[in-house]
Design goal:
By secondary structure, this protein is mainly beta. The chain is built from three helices and 21 strands. Among the domains are: about 50 residues, no CATH class; about 60 residues, no CATH class; about 45 residues, no CATH class. Helices cover about 10% and strands about 35% of the residues. A hairpin with a 2-residue loop joins β7 and β8.
Length: about 240
């Protein structure tokens, strides 16, 4: 049964410039806008908002006729194979990925440009081996860490920058011959009062409290520390008792 609707004796299809052909409704006089009243003339359909559909198709007009290809298949044909994983991220499993470059894609990911890292989003108690992050949560300031697995299967973070000199050391400090010492697991300290002194001929000696060596080991200082004074007093008492 066909149903016809008229307004003032005129078909509603003609009144609103929509036409019906068989079971299809169409508009051929311009651009259709949905969600906006000023659609762009460059499009036949201009939508302001989301579009929901079970399937999307792209029409290709060729000499042999018109063909329709699913949008998903078309994108895969263009090398776009990104897929969603449990609404938590996307993945690509069809080859290597180049970012900022299309040449020498010799690894799974090749990036031409800088990469910005931050703390891992994984559980801190269960970080997978091979993870690299930039964080300060290990108590030694911000650093790059790689999580490596040992022979027992234990995964631990290791600094990628290695042992660093403490920031309290002056930028103009002369490191030549300086003997470093550990402040903690990640930082070293150095001082002018503990050096290996050399010249053009080679090793001269170890200097403590001075950089002017006169022997293999040169110590400059009176040695009057509280601990040494206490030791001297104990030795004097023992001598008095023996007398």
């Amino acid at each position: 049964m066909n149903v016809f609707i008229y307004m003032h004796g005129v078909s509603i299809e003609n009144s609103f410039n929509w036409r019906k052909y068989n079971d299809n409704l169409y508009y051929s006089l311009g651009t259709v806008g949905i969600g906006l009243d000023d659609p762009n003339d460059n499009y036949k359909l201009h939508v302001n908002g989301s579009i929901g559909a079970e399937e999307y198709y792209i029409e290709f007009v060729q000499d042999s006729g018109v063909t329709y290809v699913k949008l998903e298949d078309y994108l895969k044909g263009q090398g776009v194979f990104w897929e969603i994983v449990d609404d938590t991220g996307i993945y690509y499993d069809y080859g290597s990925v180049g970012i900022g470059t299309s040449k020498n894609i010799v690894e799974s990911l090749v990036v031409s440009g800088a990469i910005k890292l931050s703390s891992t989003v994984q559980s801190f108690a269960n970080v997978l081996p091979g993870t690299i992050e930039y964080t300060d949560r290990y108590g030694s300031g911000y650093d790059f860490y790689a999580h490596l697995e040992d022979v027992d299967g234990v995964v631990s973070p290791y600094s990628l920058t290695g042992i660093r000199v403490d920031s309290a050391v002056s930028e103009t400090f002369n490191y030549l011959g300086a003997i470093p010492y550990f402040i903690n697991n990640s930082f070293l300290g150095v001082t002018n009062n503990f050096r290996i002194v050399t010249d053009n001929t080679g090793f001269l000696g170890v200097a403590i409290g001075t950089d002017n060596t006169t022997a293999a080991l040169t110590i400059s200082g009176d040695g009057n520390s509280k601990r040494r004074r206490r030791r001297r007093r104990r030795r004097r008492r023992r001598r008095r008792r023996r007398w």
